[in-house]
Each structure stands twice: as structure tokens, then as C-alpha cells.
Protein: Dihydrodipicolinate synthase family protein
Organism: Sabulicella glaciei
Amino acid sequence: MKDALYGGINAAVLTALKEDLSPDLDRMAEHANWLLANGCNGLGVLGTTGEANSFSGSERKAIVEGLIQRSIPAAKMMPGTGVSSITETVELTQHARAQGCRGVLLLPPFYYKNPSDDGLFAHFDEVAKRVGGGIALYLYHFPQQSAVPLSLNLLGKLLDAHPGVFKGVKDSSGDYANMKAMIDAFAPRGFEVYSGSDEYVQRILAEGGAGCITAASNANCHWGGIVYAKRTGPEADKAQAMLTATRKAATAAPLIPNLREVIARSRNDDAWRRIRPPHLPLDKAAADKAWEAWVATGAIPLPGLSGASRAAAE
């Protein structure tokens, strides 16, 4: 897809934490800079992997502002701003717009289960009207986590009601047939479809999707960048095989603590293991197993790390 605002490889960025579990913006910015220098085109901050729903609205605003203050380009960030409250969703979205972000990612209102398409339309329609334009709205289809799927019918109604406002979707369902159906139905209208699963990056790009927004990009972005740049051929195929292998390694243990463990060991920095409850760090046996799974892929040491970090990883 041409001219996608976040076209390419986007990491669902981990949120670094201090000892008191407050956001560690210096560490997070350092990681974000590494991601942008090593294959990422953009940064999905405060999504599932970034533990967005473990942070207050004021903390979420401070994270976005703090990254920008530390020279992370606002235009590269797609903050997650969707919560169950219309009022707070609008507030967070308008805040992202004021900081210079080009788009935001909206979860559906996830507390009340089995809402109708009409109910979901009313929610997103009200959000769009109150936000007032000036920022692209991306929808987050992750029914395994939110328990609120987003149907093709709903997407079509939103695009008809708000042309150019609902700009795309992140599909983390793992169901490629659903991603392809979204591409076929809406990509001709400029709607950007992003895979939340690394194993589909090469395929979705070939079939009209915009790229990916994935958790494993925190560690495998080097190979994602090759797939996005090359698309086809032996080098792209080899890089896609690495994306698929590292995705399997990332999901072999609970995803967020798994990735924190990989980054902690790769950077020789124990602080990356800090995580907000109810999530917990991996115990030693699980951590060793997770690390061994990543090592077995050939991805470790991670390309682009400093000499000290490389030495620690080895």
C-alpha cells in the first residue's frame, strides 16, 4: 500500500519501568531510538505490549510527552488511546494530536461484553465527532484479549460515516483470512491493514496490507526491516523465516515478560525485567528456557546493540 502513514515495521514498544514501577522514560527512549535505527519505521506505544491498561491517563500523557522531549519523533508514534470511557478516549486522543502524533490506536470499549455492531458504531462515531479531526484513528482488532471483535460490517459503516478519519486497523487475531478480507474490502479506499503477527509480514505486504505492529519487533525488527525493504527474493525470504521463528520464541512463554527477559539479557540491564502487576517476571527456569528459545533462532545477539551489550548477550 502506498502512502500509508505508518507503512512498514512498527514495534509495539515495551514500557520501561523504574524500581517504583513508574515509567522510566530515559530507558524507554533509548530503546525506541534503537528500534528506529534497526528496522522499525514507527512505534506503537502504549499498546498491549506496552501495558497501556496498567497506566493512568496522566501517566499515559506523560509517557508520550516524555518520549518527545527525549527526541523521539511524534510523527513516528501511534499511541494507544482507546479505553472504555468515551470521555477519556477523546481526551487522550486530543492530547496525542496536540503533541504532533499523526495517528492513535483505539481498543473497543472492552468491559461490557457482546456489544452489538450498532453499539460499537455509536461508541466510535461519538469518539470521532468529539475528537474533531486532525488525527488518524486506527482500530484495534484483538478479540482474544478484548473479547470484543470488530466486524467487517462495523468497519464499513465507520468508513462511510467518517471518510478518511478511520484510517486503518491492527489485526492481532492471528487469523490471516480476516486480515485478507479487510484488505480486499477496504484497502482500495486507502484503509491500512497492519498484521499483529510477525509470521504474516511478507504476505500482507504482497497482498495490499500496510505492514505490521508487533510485540516481537522489540527484538526482531532488524529482519522486519529487510522484509519491508526487499519484499521478495532470497534475502527477504530468509528474513521472513527469522520473523516467523522469533515470533514462535516470543510466544513460547508469556509474551510481555518473555520480551522483557530478552531485552534485559541482550542489554545486560536487569531493569528491563520490571513489570506492573498482575504481570510478573519469568522465574529463573522459565527465563532460561525463553532465552534458549531465542538463541536457537540465531537472532541473539541482537543486531545493532552496542559492543558492551553484544558482549553481555554472547
Q: What stands out?
A: The chain has one domain: 8-231. The domain at 8-231 is CATH 3.20.20.70 (TIM Barrel). Residues 307-314 have pLDDT under 50 and may be disordered.
